[in-house]
Amino acid sequence: xxxxxxxxxxxxxxxxxxxxxxxxxxxxxxxxxxxxxxxxxxxxxxxxxxxxxxxxxxxxxxxxxxxxxxxxxxxxxxxxxxxxxxxxxxxxxxxxxxxxxxxxxxxxxxxxxxxxxxxxxxxxxxxxxxxxxxxxxxxxxxxxxxxxxxxxxxxxxxxxxxxxxxxxxxxxxxxxxxxxxxxxxxxxxxxxxxxxxxxxxxxxxxxxxxxxxxxxxxx
Length: 219
Known about the structure:
Elements: E1 2-6, H1 11-22, E2 26-33, H2 39-53, E3 57-61, H3 63-66, H4 98-112, E4 117-119, H5 135-148, E5 154-156, H6 164-173, H7 196-207
Parallel strand pairs: 1-2, 1-4, 2-3, 4-5
C-alpha cells in the first residue's frame, strides 16, 4: 500500500515510518514548517530520518497559516512549560486545529499521487492533553478523509492505543536510529530534559532498560 506519512522528526513519527516500511508499505513523507519553537530542529531531524530510510520527503511551508494562532508551542507564544503531561499547564502547548489542517494536506497529497492512506504518529500518551489525538477524533477524521477523498484514502494510526513506552519498545525491536530524532519542545540545539516531551521520552527509554542515544542539556 502507498502511504503518505506525517514525519515531524520526532520519536513517534520515526517509529511509525520504521513500522510501515517493515510492513512492506511504500511511504512518502511530508513535514511542515509552521512557526513552532522547535520546528527548525524537527525539520532537520526529519530530513535525516528520511535520508536514512531512503524515502521521499517533502517540506511544506505553513508559517503564514499559523502566525495568528495562539499557543506557547509557537514562536509567537509564551514560554514552554516544564513538567509532565499530566500537569495542567501543558495545555498551553496545544496548537488549535493543527492535526486537522495537516491531515487535510496529507489527504490532498495522497490523492494527487494515488496513495491509499495517510499515517499519523498519535499515541495513547497524548490523549489527556491533545483532543486531536484521541480515538474518537481519529475515528471521525478517518470518516472525513475517506468521504472527502471519495473513499480513496484512509487514516492509519498504528500507535493510537500504545503509550510512549510501548512505542520505544517497538522501535528498539525495529532498530530505529533514535539518535536522529528530535523530541524537545524548546528552541535550543540540545534537548532540555525538562519539558514534558523530554521527560516522557527519557522515562520511556528508562522503562525499556535502554539508554536514550541523544544528548541533553544537563549531560
